[in-house]
Amino acid sequence: MSSSITVAKVLNNNVIIAEHPQYAEVVVIGKGIGFNRKTRDRINLSSVEKMFILRSQEEQEQYKQLVPQVDEKLIEVVQEIVLHIMQSSRQALNEHIHIALTDHISFAIRRSEQHIAIHNPFLYETREIYPEEYRLAEYAVDRINEAMKVSLPPDEIGFVALHIVSALSNRHISEVKQHSQLIGDMVGLVEDNLEYRIPRDSLDYSRLVTHLRFVLERLRRGETVRETSSLDGLMKREYPEMYMLAWKLTKVIEQRVHIPVYPAEVSYLTIHLQRLAQKKEDESGMEQQDSI
């Protein structure tokens, strides 16, 4: 087998498309790798430090169009981040992350330079739903700020985390965003009904978001939930208001993801909601005592 690759296209001084003896077309990244290179030039594989494969022809074309439009240093930093994610998660990533993350960060840097702030309304939900991916995104944003001499805001951590989730789970970014937004909307619905703002750093908030996440994950995987008619009857009888709120939440889920929710989910969700309602009552009682 040949121990060299052949230059197919030079994208810039640091990025080339090459023909690999085993993997067909590959993207090769390295400082000066494309400098003075011409099509059909051969490069010894031992001198290649960073390389990845874009198997999809569509992905290849998108990457070829994207690279000339972004800072060459950003290409290297994103590749470094992608390698870090792969090593930390010990999982393969969907190849689209090379395009999606590069494009997103490039646009975020331009917004930052123009002082255009984009608020992430689901930052807390994303951190609770995807804690590992959020930590990887924190590393990514810190590394970008350091390497590119920029100051991307914390909101960007949430956006980057969703791209990481998408790449690790092979789910389209729109689906991942939909789930985060849905959970955020449901938390808002709970707070409106209870007239109680759940502290974002509280265990109650973490429990509620985690439960809602698992409901969505069970639906996505097509898992059934064992029926508990005795529990259902008890919840409906003892906590009618929270049971009705739980029923409303499951209907919101059905409307948004177009998958029927098993009735047992209502009972389990009622337990979480009743805990929150009790917490609100306890805090209200303490405030009244303090005012006496």
From TrEMBL:
It comes from the Bacteria. Keywords: Repeat. Coiled coil: none annotated. Residues 69-174, 175-283 form the PRD domain. The keyword Cell membrane does not apply. PROSITE patterns: PRD_2. InterPro entries: BglG_antiterminators, CAT_RNA-bd_dom, CAT_RNA-bd_dom_sf, PRD, PRD_sf. Pfam families: CAT_RBD, PRD. PANTHER family: CRYPTIC BETA-GLUCOSIDE BGL OPERON ANTITERMINATOR, PROTEIN GLCT. This is PRD domain-containing protein. It comes from Paenibacillus phytohabitans.
